[in-house]
Amino acid sequence: MNVNEINAYLERAREIIGDRSEAEIEYDNAVVAHLRVGKDIKRAIRAANREHRSEALQPSGEHWPDLAARYEYLLEHQAILKRLGIKE
Hints:
Elements: H1 3-17, H2 22-36, H3 41-51, H4 64-84
Helix pairs in contact: 2-3, 2-4
């Protein structure tokens, strides 16, 4: 990957992920950490809710697929950043 491709990827990732507060980033990182160890999205969110009560999500049934997609994206994004040696 060349520098232009990396920059394009990072710009698109910022668009997809959106602006987040520091507390939201910590919550998202907690969900991703739980996914990384093999928990499914519901268990990962429940665990993150216990750790970050102020950011806790209480999704209804129709939101789970979107949340699963978002956090799978974040999981892969963090893996890409790690391979590139980039800190978030």
